């Protein structure tokens, strides 16, 4: 197990270095740092201001090799954009936002709370509903209920998330008037009022694909011999479904679930934007719209890092959930 | 079984509905004079030397007082005293320069802030002095601050010398560069043209007359700034940056600033306007000369005449990233004012009025033409379209101008929210003539074809290539909307037989083309800094040409007649002579056609009946100190408008039951 973990972590480290190389090409070689500076300080800024901004944000360094080393101006051959990019990302020293000069680490810390307050309950509720309904319709397979739910699943999968957001705001916020249409409050006593609607919308939007997946998994398990044995031994329906079918279906569920966990930190792009939640998803959208390259670079890097960690975590969870799985 | 299911569903729904409300505000706000508004774009900086956008001005304009202000109600705009006791008259100086003397009001104090503790322990505020204005002028000149309006103060004596001195000292001496800003400015000797003979007297000396300089004293750029705030808010040891703070003297202070979520302006109890000796201060008392039309339209409540401002306890701004939820919350009454989103325009408007449904809710629509101009420009250095092409090129530009219909453009893309432009000058400005009709801005395809033939391009054919004349329209925006708008404009020229290609690039690539002069036709816009014709006509003055000075004259229009008149008109007060000069300049642009003037933006603002004194000021000028709300009316109407509609819930419950019942029946059938 330990050897496997070390090997996976080593693969992961190589992948991270590759991701960083790709990011460097996209953000420094394809995008000209001069363009980034011009966008940030304004087209008609004085040359000294423009130069100062580039220095402050580290965009004034050469791309790969600092040939000025020894002239007294540079610290080292490696005082370049390439090495600085790797150093800053690998040490989690993300620097300052190109758009408003605030430290990116501060923005991440400020945004993580609102993002997690949305994504964690949404994730748990989504999982509970999808597994619950999946189990339910699997039990009632080949009935009218099963067919109607399947049609509903296809329907919900075919509709864009944006429509759910608008429809949810209209139905719950405008007609039923249960919750505010949008907004957020840091106060824990009222936060649920602002999160209830986006969570509801998120659950409905993710309903179709998840229910279909879990239904298929459960039906597959229900056809196995151990289920017949359990029934023959007189186990009730509820016990068969929960203690036997659900338990044995854990491996594919874990695959689907654990890989999603790291992305809870990066927030939800659409839900946060439309419901006015100041999380990391909305921050990413804003970075794209506002040419905030340093923030965007950081978010892409963190996304890749979390994905790699999620995959390693999934493998570990297999071993924990199923004693037959041996990691070597 | 079925009955039990229904009972459970109804109970669950009742429980869910109990205590749920769509009111996004805390109950403690009820009955208080709080104005609720929203913002989409996050302010980049609140530093008054730098902040330039409307989203920033909403804060800076309310938190920072200025020496002069615009009269809230009078049009054309008129300057009145703010922190200054009077609007100063220019004094001619023997060297050809000009001097303005400002006497600062007594008892003007900064907002209470921890930064003042630095200078004197325990101190929370202090009185404003003339040195605080001088400090801000030094900041405007400081190259490290990068004020976007620094070039507007070059006529201030010693302004540029000070900037150069400061930059040189910083380059030469690293220890100097590390000193606090106020010490650096003092060591660099300050700006020669900014004198502070006493703590309440500020003198501004210009190297040459400039009639427009006073407008700049009505903007937050020239507000007094305490050096303590700049020194304290340095972004170190957990302190915020000065760009995220606002320590001013205004009627409101910045109480909450979470720029991703909300900000709150709170009434400043130490505002100078509340002092006993400010009873006649124009900036502190609601104007008494009220136009009957404003009263009839319920934009102004005459009962407020002569009353001390401000009337609100708080202004609460909530971040709304998307237009649809923002507009829906406005319709529910949770925002007191708002614009109209494109998606709901037809439901809100009927012709040029509010729809009966909206009018029945007591909603008001205020329309204000903004001091803007959007136009298509020709690069006058281009051999085909520009000056070098002589009469032929001029006729080609005239023909192209005649082909473009702004009315259709406005209807198609802006729901008619704009006024077709006849000249660069928008309504409400000195020199604007409402009766004037530009002969080349009345769409006439037959006349356009005739002019095209006279230009040597009959039916759009270039005799040199015997193919349609090929032109390029450069745009720095690759969005579908922008492409569609440009396609509309280009289609008119294509119907003349011209082959106009759209070159859509990113903004940076487009800027690069402009820098290199590699463009023929472009689309641009301008929003005025102050309400004067000079602030529009300078966009066509030769010394401001992009090719010559990287200036804002992107059309590179250079015309001696225009330039000489511009020089003559720019520094003189409004008069018949000035009106004549402006008219002659407009006549030159009419014939020469460096631009095809498209439209002036018309802002549609909706307000609820409980928002009092909603007349917009234009110029992105914040007017919250004039505004008031009636909280009781708001509460009553919000309760009335937000009665839950329960049938969708009933429908949902029936749907769930219709799904579950067959399943339960199947289950029992299988088991029995």
Short description:
Chain A has about 325 residues and is mainly alpha-helical. Helix content of chain A is about 70%, strand content about 0%. In chain B, strands 11, 14, 15, 16, 19, 20, 21 and 22 form an 8-stranded mixed sheet that branches. A 4-stranded mixed sheet of chain B has the order 1-10-9-8, covered by helices on one side. Chain B has a 4-stranded antiparallel sheet with strand order 4-5-7-6, with helices on one face.
Outline the structure in words.
The complex is a heterodimer of chains A (328) and B (672). With 328 residues, chain A is mainly α. In chain A, 70% of the residues lie in helices and 0% in strands. Chain A is built from 14 helices and no strands. In chain A, helix 1 (2-30) crosses helix 4 (81-90), helix 2 packs across helix 3 and helix 6 (144-158) crosses helix 8. The longest helix of chain A has 36 residues, at 104-139. Chain A is flat and about 80 Å long. Chain B is α+β, with helices and mostly antiparallel strands. In chain B, 34% of the residues lie in helices and 17% in strands. Chain B is built from 23 helices and 24 strands. In chain B, the strands form 7 sheets. In chain B, strands 11, 14, 15, 16, 19, 20, 21 and 22 form an 8-stranded mixed beta sheet that branches. In chain B, strands 1-10-9-8 form a 4-stranded mixed beta sheet, with helices on one face. The interface between A and B is large, with 54 and 53 residues.
Q: Which descriptors apply to this entry?
A:
heterodimer, A: 328 residues, mainly alpha, 14 helices, B: alpha+beta
């Amino acid at each position: 197990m330990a050897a496997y973990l070390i090997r996976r972590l080593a693969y992961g480290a190589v992948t991270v270095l590759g991701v960083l190389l790709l990011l460097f090409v996209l953000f420094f070689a394809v995008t000209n740092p001069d363009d980034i500076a011009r966008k940030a300080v304004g087209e008609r800024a004085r040359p000294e201001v423009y130069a100062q901004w580039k220095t402050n944000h580290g965009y004034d360094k050469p791309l790969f090799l600092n040939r000025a080393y020894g002239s007294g101006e540079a610290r080292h051959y490696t005082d370049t954009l390439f090495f600085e990019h790797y150093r800053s990302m690998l040490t989690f020293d993300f620097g300052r936002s190109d758009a408003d000069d605030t430290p990116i680490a501060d923005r991440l810390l400020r945004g993580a709370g609102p993002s997690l307050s949305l994504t964690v309950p949404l994730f748990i509720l989504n999982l509970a509903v999808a597994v619950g309904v999946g189990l339910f319709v699997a039990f009632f397979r080949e009935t009218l209920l099963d067919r109607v739910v399947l049609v509903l699943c296809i329907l919900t999968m075919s509709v864009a998330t944006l429509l759910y957001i608008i429809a949810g705001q209209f139905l719950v916020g405008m007609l039923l008037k249960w919750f505010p249409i949008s907004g957020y409050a840091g106060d824990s006593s009222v936060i649920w009022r602002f999160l209830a609607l986006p969570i509801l919308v998120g659950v409905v939007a993710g309903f179709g694909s998840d229910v279909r997946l879990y239904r298929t998994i459960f039906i597959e398990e229900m056809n196995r011999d151990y289920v017949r044995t359990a029934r023959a031994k007189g186990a009730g329906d509820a016990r068969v479904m929960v203690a036997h079918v659900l338990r044995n279906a854990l491996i594919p569920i874990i695959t689907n679930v654990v890989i999603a966990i790291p992305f809870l930190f990066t927030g939800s792009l659409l839900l946060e934007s439309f419901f006015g939640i100041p999380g990391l998803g909305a921050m990413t959208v804003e970075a794209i719209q506002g040419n905030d390259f340093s923030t965007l670079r950081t978010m892409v890097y963190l996304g890749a890092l979390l994905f790699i960690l999620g995959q390693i975590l999934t493998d570990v969870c297999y071993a924990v959930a199923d004693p037959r799985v041996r990691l070597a | 079984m079925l009955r039990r299911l229904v009972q459970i569903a109804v109970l669950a729904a009742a429980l869910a509905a109990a205590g749920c409300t769509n009111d996004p505000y805390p109950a403690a706000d009820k009955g208080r004079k709080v104005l609720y508004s929203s913002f989409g774009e996050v302010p980049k900086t609140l530093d008054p030397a730098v902040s330039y956008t409307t989203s920033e001005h909403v804060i800076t304009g309310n938190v920072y007082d200025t020496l002069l202000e615009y009269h809230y109600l009078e049009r054309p705009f008129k300057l009145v005293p703010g922190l200054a006791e009077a609007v100063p008259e220019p004094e001619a100086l023997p060297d050809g320069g000009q001097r303005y003397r400002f006497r600062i009001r007594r008892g003007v104090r900064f907002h209470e802030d921890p930064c003042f503790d630095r200078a004197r322990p325990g101190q929370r505020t202090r009185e404003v002095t003339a040195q605080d204005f001088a400090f801000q002028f030094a900041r405007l000149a400081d190259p490290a601050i990068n004020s976007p309006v620094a070039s507007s103060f070059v006529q201030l004596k010693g302004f540029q010398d000070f900037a150069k001195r400061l930059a040189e000292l910083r380059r030469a001496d690293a220890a100097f560069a590390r000193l606090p800003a106020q010490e650096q400015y003092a060591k660099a000797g300050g700006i020669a043209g900014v004198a502070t003979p006493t703590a309440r007297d500020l003198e501004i000396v210009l190297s040459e007359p400039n009639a427009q300089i006073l407008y700049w004293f009505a903007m937050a750029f020239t507000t007094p700034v305490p050096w303590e705030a700049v020194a304290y808010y340095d972004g170190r040891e957990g302190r915020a940056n000065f760009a995220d703070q606002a320590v001013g003297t205004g009627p409101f202070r910045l109480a909450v600033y979470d720029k991703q979520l909300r900000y709150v302006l709170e009434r400043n109890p130490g505002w100078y306007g509340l002092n006993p000796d400010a009873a006649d201060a124009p900036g502190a008392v609601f104007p008494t000369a009220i136009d009957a039309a404003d009263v009839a339209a319920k934009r102004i409540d005459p009962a407020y005449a002569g009353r001390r401002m401000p009337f609100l306890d708080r202004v609460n701004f909530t971040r709304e990233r998307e237009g649809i939820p923002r507009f829906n919350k406005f319709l529910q009454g949770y925002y007191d004012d708002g614009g109209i989103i494109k998606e709901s325009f037809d439901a809100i408007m009927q012709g040029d009025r509010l729809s009966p449904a909206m009018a029945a809710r007591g909603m008001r629509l205020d329309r204000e033409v903004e001091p803007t101009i959007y136009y298509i420009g020709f690069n006058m250095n281009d051999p085909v379209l520009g000056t070098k092409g002589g009469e032929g090129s001029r006729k080609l530009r005239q023909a192209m101008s005649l082909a473009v219909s702004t009315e259709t453009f406005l209807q198609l893309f802006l729901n008619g929210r704009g006024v077709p432009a006849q000249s660069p000058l928008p309504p409400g400005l000195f020199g604007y003539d409402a009766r004037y009709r530009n002969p080349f801005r009345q769409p006439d395809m037959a006349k356009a074809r005739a002019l095209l033939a006279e230009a040597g391009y009959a039916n759009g054919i270039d005799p040199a290539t015997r193919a349609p004349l090929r032109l390029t329209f450069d745009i720095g925006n690759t969005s579908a909307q922008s492409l569609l708008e440009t396609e509309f404009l280009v289609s008119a020229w294509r119907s003349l037989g011209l082959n106009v290609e759209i070159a859509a690039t990113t903004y940076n690539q487009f800027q690069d083309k402009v820098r290199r002069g590699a463009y023929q036709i472009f689309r641009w816009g301008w929003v005025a800094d102050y309400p004067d014709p000079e602030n529009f006509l300078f966009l066509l003055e030769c010394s401001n040409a992009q090719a010559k000075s990287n200036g804002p004259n992107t059309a590179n229009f250079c015309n001696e007649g225009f330039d000489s008149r511009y020089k003559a008109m720019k520094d003189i007060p409004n008069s018949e002579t000035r009106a004549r000069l402006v008219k002659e300049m407009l006549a030159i642009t009419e014939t020469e056609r460096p631009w095809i003037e498209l439209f002036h933006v018309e802002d549609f603002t909706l307000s609820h009946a409980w928002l009092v004194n909603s007349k917009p000021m234009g110029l992105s000028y914040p007017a919250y100190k004039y505004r008031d709300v009636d909280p009781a009316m708001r509460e009553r109407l919000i309760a009335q408008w937000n009665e839950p509609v329960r049938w969708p819930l009933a429908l949902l419950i029936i749907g769930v039951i219709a799904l579950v019942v067959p399943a339960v029946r199947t289950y029992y059938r299988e088991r029995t």
